[in-house]
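Handout for the seminar on molecular recognition.
Each group receives one record of this type.
Step one: identify the two inputs.
Step two: read the structure output and locate the region that could contact magnesium ion.
Step three: write two sentences on what you found, then compare them with the reference statements printed after the record.
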Amino acid sequence: MARGFSQKRAAKLVKKTIRDFDLRGKRVLIRVDFNVPLDKNLNLTDDTRIRATLPTIKYALEHGAQVILMSHLGRPEGRPVSTMSLSPAAKRLSELLHQEVIQCSDCIGPRIKEELSRLKDGVSVALLENLRFNPNEEKNDPAFSKALAEHGQVYINDAFGSSHRAHASIEGITKFLPSGAGFLLEKEIQYLGEALKNPKKPFMAILGGSKVSDKIGVVENLISKVDKILIGGAMAYTFLKVQGVGIGSSKFEKDKLDLAKTILEKAKENGVEILLPVDHGVVQKVDAAAPLKVEGPSISPEWLGVDIGPKTVQLFSGALASAKTVVWNGPMGIFEMKPFAKGSYEIALKLSELKGAVTVIGGGDTAACVMGFGLQDKMTHISTGGGASLEYLEGVELPGIAALEDK
Ligand code: ADP
Ligand code: 3PG
Ligand code: MG
């Protein structure tokens, strides 16, 4: 169990899980999210999502099942695209499991049934080809769900990262098979859910990233739950502008100024303190080689903020020192460029050092940022979901979770 959580405190999952089924001699169809990043030579550059499903796959094998995995990769728009084959994922999974992974040539049809006919109980793992090569996956087409369901006797969703999509392999399929959550899905719901529903106080949210508009739903959901919101990244400039602080040429959203004002007012009404940057790393051009200086609280004309500055790091770190639950979504600067990653690094480091606090990281870029710093093992939980974790933090019920059988 990750630090900061006791078994007793972990939120209960009301859905059935893989533990609720007798798997011996059965074919278990597991939806995973192997939508993994590939480089131009189709080499996998991050296997986190594959590793994260190993407990479920191993459990199914240990309990005597035949395992059939299915996933999408990329957005091939309903037709086969060779660069979006799940081959690299199958290869990596095979290395991680130290065993053969049978790679299917498609996901439905008589040929696939034939390919799956050689699976053995407790031993075999097969991976269907990219579900989105078929246009009916994203259409949530019942006939396609049914054809997928025919491959198995139990359906397990372990694809948290895809559970915000009401697609055939995620939502529709639950109408044709007994269904439950895998260990990864269960863990995501426990940690994200616990942070939102039953947080140890003080509860603080760190929000950043590129746009206020991307994070409105998250702010609206969190504002009635948190004690403080720390805002960095480009979204801070819309808030600073509304307060009359000079932001130079920093990125901001003109049409979201009123909304930023409303959020500031709402926070006041709720007794929530909003902390904004008091200094910034600024450049004249978004280029890693551009001369970088620290300015604040105002930014001079023609300079733009690409990171939070050292005084802001101090301000945010001081606030975080007493936090018992922290949810972080959105980097503090353009972390993809090393000179502008300092603020995000300092905040990640501070979180990693908090004693007895629950630290939950959501959002694709924020997770990549923390992993890039090598601090992933020092956090309570890093979500494998990008859009899915964002929607979860917005308080939206994810269709892939809602569709599973209740306990
Ligand atoms: P997540 O994927 O974790 O939800 P977002 O996609 O909202 O995060 O935000 C990540 C992006 O925000 C990154 O690409 C980063 O470069 C960008 N960003 C952060 N700060 C700034 C800034 N000051 N100016 C422009 N872009 C920024
Ligand atoms: C993700 O990477 O966020 C999931 O795999 C979902 O992918 P999608 O945004 O293409 O539906
Ligand atoms: Mg992002």
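Reference statements: Residues 33, 35, 75, 161-162, 165, 386-387 surround 3-phosphoglyceric acid (ligand 2) (CB under 6 Å). The two ends are 23 Å apart (CA to CA).
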